[in-house]
Amino acid sequence: MLKKKTAILFIEQDGTSAKEIQVPTFILKHWQKISITLLMCIIAGGVSLAYFVKLNTTAEYTAVYDKKIRELTQENHQLGLEEMNNQMTTEQMKKSFYAIDSTLERINEKMKKRGLKEIKMKNVGGPIEKEDDLVELSNFYDKQLKELESKLEGIPFGIPHHGRITSRFGYRRNPFTNRGREMHSGVDLKGRTGDPVKATANGTVTFAGYKGDYGYVVMVQHKNGYETRYAHLNRTKVRRGQRVDVGETIGLLGSTGRSTGPHLHYEVLQHDRKLNPERYFQF
Prior knowledge:
This protein has a domain of about 120 residues: Glucose Permease (Domain IIA). It has 3 helices and 14 strands. The strands form 3 sheets. Strands 3, 6, 7, 8, 9, 10, 11, 12, 13 and 14 form a 10-stranded antiparallel beta sheet that branches. Helix 2 packs parallel to helix 3.
């Protein structure tokens, strides 16, 4: 199709021959169609180029936007975690303070059973602690209060019978002869025959019965080597080996044994050494 050619002669303005070239006859016959086809190809190429440029540019922008969206999503997730942590911290604080309150309530109940006043915070104040510090601080106080509660169970704090003190711990005049001095190893609390006498701490009864000058007496062994004795009872209400709780009635006040009248003779010992019970009348 392109083998057949036609000569094209280029002539100068003065009529002289200048140059001759051979062009395929097919091109000369169909130059309009060929020109249109070439033009369309150029236009199509330009459009394609523009499309690919736009596509690449869109992809770049999409990548940038995707990156921004991922960053924002990550930040939002982090904020959510921080808010969750703050809520957990608040919940931990509430639980810690509730634990402290419940422990204080239990301690105060034991104080009441011992005839002591409740633990109250008076004349206190100060700046509010930071939230992070409050969590650690509440855990610390919760631990301390639980340790205090455990110690209170075995230490004979309190008064076994609310009566006027008629004879204190230490040397005194002989109440029977009114002459000479004798060692009084406990505290005498005046009362009426039949008044309840209560244990001042949790423990185990080691003796309950009649014992010489003590008359009817109850002896209770506690933690940390403590022992309490409740003497001159009218009768005992516990038996040897029995577990007793603080505030539990262990006997009734009387005047048995070496006694001049109805009262409770109360002793506190630690490792068999007799102590002044009045030291344990207040916490």
